[in-house]
Amino acid sequence: MNKKVLVGLVFIVAGLSLSALAVCRGGLPGELYWNNGPIYLSDQDEKGTADITPDQVTTGKQDVTALDVTSKDADIVLKHGEHFAVLTDPAEKTSVTVSAIDGTVKVTGDEKNNWSFGIKNHGRHQITVVVPEKFDLKNVALGNINGDIHLSKIETENIQMTNVNGDIFLSDSKVNKSGDVENRNGDIQVRDSTLPKLKSYSRNGDINITNCYQNVPANQAVLSFRNWNGDISLT
């Protein structure tokens, strides 16, 4: 038998066996991931979250003053909450590293060299950072390659956001000093936020900025919005 055909049959048998096992345990199969071997996540597991908050932060040994979050294959979400936390879904956990050094929490989501299939579609994976209101953030840096960036109810002195393939959403937030927001392939949407003097540029897309924001000439701006293939909307 052809070697490639044999390998394919082995993968199929492994997948069917894991699916049958999941059904026997009381449910339809969730997702089957391949990452140096088959990994099955039930529907219940897939809906859960994995807390990967650095121990230096949870124990109170470090105060968080800056965030540096990058991802290659997952959405990035920053939101307001009661306690600081870095969360991800179980399937994404093995691809994420996190550290806390001198007040900067760094989260890196690497590209996964794996595949997955399943009966139910759970959507894109997420890396979520929960920030309490009492935190005095000096800098927030977010970078993504394949996925959206969502930032809601966050206050920071400075902000940098870059995306390659995905949208950028900023809502109910405040930037006090300066920043730079750039997108290659996707929209930039800002709603109900407080921003310093800004400039905007879009090569292939529309720009809509209401009077709530200070849209000034480039030499007066301290915050810039740049887009290559997408719209810019500040409302």
From TrEMBL:
The keyword Signal applies. InterPro entries: Toastrack_DUF4097. Keywords: Signal. Residues 1-22 form the signal peptide. Residues 65-212 form the DUF4097 domain. This is Putative adhesin. It comes from Fructobacillus durionis.
